Amino acid sequence: MKCCEGLILLTSLPEDAAATAILDHTKFLHEITTWLNTAYNHLPRSIDPAVVDGVEARWGIDHIKMSEAAFPGQRHIVNFLSLFDYCNILIKEAHSKISKALVLAIRKQFLEPAMKPDLLKDSEEQFIAPSAYLAKVLQFVNTDLLNQEMSNFIFEVDLESDLRSLSRTLIERCDDPSEMVGSLHLKLFDSLLQKPCEVTVYELVAKYLVSRAYADQSKLNSEEKSVSHTETSINTQPSPASPSLSHPGTPVSPGGKCFGSFHKN
Hints:
By secondary structure, the protein is mainly α. The chain is 63% helix and 0% strand.
């Protein structure tokens, strides 16, 4: 606990030179991501998502003893979630240069190599637990930088290929015949939408509104043709005679000028 608190103090030093020294001359990023990978590798791989959702864990308030664990693997789940929450706090408190480097390292050295392959597994037995852990993590991420990088990870922003396999897979599982799988992934995306992130809003909402991908294109084309035909019919109808601009009862000369009641003497 004291070591973790000391690390927060060190990384929060305001001097740029201190931040550069930590990033360039220590194993700070490597050690943090190694902790995450180790904790993740100890998580149970067969577990009810509702059990994971019910686990409460925050860094600094973990008092569960091994003998008091309510179910097998609870100790490891609490450790993983507490560590991720610690990273959340570290990113919030650290120098901006360190925070940006850390969120990128978490994605490149933990999320991509460790979680992504498990999330893309075909078997429900293999992907259900990793999806539950991801959904739980998303619930308590409350720093803009980490939330942004989590969204970038899920929607594979900056991916060289146009193939968005992870986001497509997770979205398709929302409509899975299994109620447990469908509800879990709906909750995952609900947690994402609760966060103020431009990437998430664009990928889940805005791009479908812009492309009108939600609409039946055959009906749209039919309606557009109908509107076009109606406009054409209106434009080809003869225009009614323009009304005279003169006052009613005022004589009009052959040249179109009005003769009023006043005459020049």
